[in-house]
Amino acid sequence: MQRFFDVLFSGLALLVLSPLLLGLMLLLRLTGEGEVFFRQQRIGRGGEPFELLKFATMLKDSPNMATGTVTVTGDPRVLPVGRVLRKLKLNELPQLINIFRGDMSVIGPRPQTRRCFDAFPAEAQREIVQVRPGLSGVGSIVFRGEEEMYADVDDPDWLYDHVIMPYKGELERWYVRNQSLKNYFLLIGITAWVVLFPRSRLFWRVFPELPEPPAELAGKV
Question: Fewer CB atoms inside 10 Å of the end CB: C or N, the chain?
Answer without folding.
Answer: N
